[in-house]
Amino acid sequence: MDADAFRWLLTDEGTRLVAEAAAALEDGANELTVQARLRRRADGDLVTAALTQASLRRRARAKFGEAADLLWFTPAGLEQATRPAVAAHRARRLAAYGVDAFADLTCGIGGDLMAVATATGATCVGTDLDPVTAAVARANVASLGLPVAVDVRDGTTLDLAPFDAAMIDPARRDGTGRTFRADAWEPSWDVVTGLLTGPVPAVAKVAPGLPHDLVPEGVEAEWVSDRGHLKEAALWGPALATASRRATVLGATGLATLTDEDDPVGDRVPAPTGAVGDYLVEPDDAVVRAGLVTAVAARCDGWLVDPHLAYVSAHAPGPAALSRSYRVLEELPYREKQLRAALRFRRIGALTIKKRGVDVVPAQLRKRLDLSGDVTATLVLTRVAGAGTALLVEPV
Ligand SMILES: C[S@@+](CC[C@H](N)C(=O)[O-])C[C@H]1O[C@@H](n2cnc3c(N)ncnc32)[C@H](O)[C@@H]1O
After folding, report:
1. Which of 272, 255, 254, 274 is nearest to 263 (CA)?
2. pLDDT tens-digit readout, 215-239
3. Does residue 80 have its Cβ closer than 6 Å to ligand 1?
4. How far apart are CA 277 and CA 331, in angstroms?
5. Most CB atoms closer than 10 Å: which of 39, 74, 165, 357?
6. Can you give the pTM of this predicted structure?
7. Three-class SS of residue 110?
8. Contact in structure between 187 and 172 (CB atoms under 8 Å)
9. Residue 130 DSSP code
């Protein structure tokens, strides 16, 4: 979609065509049929743009819920946009700090920009290098009635003097945003660290694979998960930082957070370890990435089953908002032949296999075990004090 096609989509006729395409897709019509029908009303390129927009809105519902129907997208912009729950959390932190004038240097289609403008009521400016992406962000803030300015420009050259907070969320050239490669950023990692340690309070969204040793001095690294999925790391510059490391777990019942200050172990004291007890506790991935597994252990008077693995054991379940807990039913043989016999003896036919710290591919193992029976079970394969261990467990 080019800038002219998008401009046309925003006209009454374009908006009607998108709505019509969306309604037809909703009724189950296939894209070719819809395209043929709409071709009677507009040029091929405009029809393609309307149809693409309608199908992007359908796809966007998984991320934006019903609000997707009011918003505009590009395929990459939708992919890269921060999920509303995560953006709202960041925006609330900025609101608590007290922000009156905010700049999002790499605003994309406006995922973060919309959240910050809504939560803070600040005067907001967004910039993006890509003209179509910037136009989409402009249309999105307008659709929500937010008084936000969006400019097409290189955000790294914006004069930040008038702003009391800024954000940067670089595009990742690998497209996925999951892995961390310092050379894969646009703007570059140096620009990100320069902003974080510069004079204006700033926050950066980065890939959750960020190594701890790259976090600049005085900057808080916050790993955020949403409904069990690790989404991102946010780096908060010194003026906005409230801890060194933080895990924030967003869930159906709200937010739970842990910081290095909740961790009695830290770098100095060795973590308590021991044999598997009544419960096995699996901390949320945000906790694991933040290196705060021992803080979860402290919350439930637990211990690690192996100093290098993110499993806690305890006499009671772990904190529900920060971890998943399993009652340990029994230990089974770790060797495959004996394990198969033990599972068959228990008539276990449906098996969920969880693993940590062992070289096993659950789907392949399940196939090799060739189980049959009417019992459903969960098996954990891990190392306890360095030895491969199989535990039959039951989710709490
Ligand atoms: C990951 S996306 C931002 C997503 C946004 N936070 C959201 O929630 O929708 C990164 C954006 O940065 C833009 N970009 C890359 N380099 C830029 C630069 N130097 N100045 C402004 N924008 C830039 C890209 O065009 C892309 O749209």
Report:
1. 272
2. 999 999 999 999 999 999 999 999 9
3. yes
4. 11
5. 165
6. 0.92
7. coil
8. no
9. S
